[in-house]
Design goal:
This protein is an alpha+beta fold. The chain is built from 3 helices and 2 strands; from the N terminus they run H-H-E-E-H. A hairpin with a 6-residue loop joins strand 1 (41-46) and strand 2.
């Protein structure tokens, strides 16, 4: 193994490189989580007393004054 090959191997598979890759993946996951919107839910139920059939639709709304800073913080942690 030449010196150049050893350097390439150390830079591509060293423990610090693996740690940096894991940190980068975690930072990308934080941005993805911060920008994700909550899923709507639809549920149905039945009871013996009137009204017998119940249908519920929920659409969670993310507060814009909370979402913006949350996304900005996640993106800032990705730049560090």
């Amino acid at each position: 193994m030449t010196r150049a090959e050893a350097q390439r191997a150390a830079l591509s598979a060293g423990p610090r490189v693996a740690l940096a890759r894991a940190d980068s993946a975690a930072a990308r996951a934080r941005v993805l989580t911060a920008t994700a919107l909550p899923n709507p839910t639809l549920s149905a139920s039945y009871s013996k007393s009137p009204p017998q059939k119940h249908l519920t639709f929920e659409l969670p709304v993310d507060a814009p004054w909370l979402r913006g800073p949350r996304v900005a913080a996640a993106r800032a942690s990705n730049r560090v």
